[in-house]
Amino acid sequence: MKIVYLLIAVIIFSACSHTNKLKHYNLEGQTILFEEIILSSAGEAIIDFGNTPTAKKGDIIGTVKDVALSVGNTILTYEMERRLRNASRPDSVVKGISKGFETSMIKFLRIDPIYKLNDRSNFIVTTILERFKMYSTTSGVFIQVSATIEIICRNDGVRIWNYDDTETVRIRRDNYLETTAQQVFLGEISQMVELATLSEEQIRNAIYSAAFQIGRNMSETLRKDIAKLKGR
C-alpha cells in the first residue's frame, strides 16, 4: 500500500548566518557536487516524547484521552523508542535536507548535480547537520533540525553562499489506513499512538520526507537571492 504523508512545515526563526556572493559567480547550468556532513552533535537523534496533555476537571472525553496517552507513552518508552531510534538516522535526515535543496537548485538554476568528485564540478554544495530532535506536544509529532548549507567555489575556495537555520516540521500521516471511527479517535488523541502502528521503514520514510521539506524551506533564501540578483 502506498503511504502518503501530509507534512505541514512550521518554520522557527532563530539566529541565522547568511553569506551571499552570488553576483560574483555564475551557477546557472553548472555541474555541482553535492555532499553531506554530520557533526558529532547530531550523531544520534534526540527523542523526547515526555509531553502529555492534561484533561480539564469533569472532562470525561479528555480523561479517556489522557488514559490512552499514558498507555501510548508506556508503549513508546520501550518498543517504540527502539523503533524510533532505529528509524531516526541522521544520515537519512541530512540526505533529505540536501535533496530538497538540490531540487530547488535544479528548478531555479538548471544545474547538473553529481555525487562523486570529478573535474567537471566547479562548485560544491555541502549540507551540514548540526542537531536533530524528534518530539511530541499536544499539537502533534515534530522533528527539529539545525543545519547549514553552503556553496563553495572549487577554483578559489571561496564560500560564495551560506545559510544556517533551525526549523521544525510537524509530521502527520494521511491515507495510511482506511478511515474508521476508531482511527479518527486515535488521531485526535495523539500522533504518538499512531506512530506505534508504523513500521521502522514507514517512520524512516516520514522523517526523510520531513527533512526534504526542510531542505526546500532553506532553499527559499537562495531563490530570493537569485531573484534579487536578476532584478525581479
Explain what this protein looks like in three dimensions.
- This protein is of the alpha/beta class.
- The protein has one domain (about 5-230).
- Helix content is about 40%, strand content about 30%.
- The protein contains five helices and eight strands.
- About 30% of the residues are buried.
User: What helical percentage do the residues reach?
Assistant: 25-40%
DSSP, total strands: 8
Which residues form runs of ≥5 with pLDDT under 50?
1-14, 51-69, 174-189
Major sheet description: 8 strands, mixed
As a percent range, the share of strand residues is 25-35%
H/E series: EEEEHHEEEEHHH
Overall geometry? elongated
The overall pLDDT, averaged over residues, is 77
> How many domains is the backbone divided into?
1
Structural class: alpha/beta
Record keyword descriptors for this entry.
alpha/beta; disordered N terminus; 40% helix
Brief write-up:
The chain has 232 residues and is of the alpha/beta class. The chain is built from 5 helices and 8 strands. Strands 1, 2, 3, 4, 5, 6, 7 and 8 form an 8-stranded mixed β-sheet that branches.
Helix/strand layout:
Elements: E1 4-10, E2 18-20, E3 31-38, E4 46-48, H1 60-87, H2 90-109, E5 112-114, E6 123-137, E7 140-153, E8 159-174, H3 181-189, H4 191-195, H5 200-229
Parallel strand pairs: 3-5, 3-6, 4-6
Antiparallel strand pairs: 1-8, 2-8, 6-7, 7-8
Helix pairs in contact: 1-5, 2-5
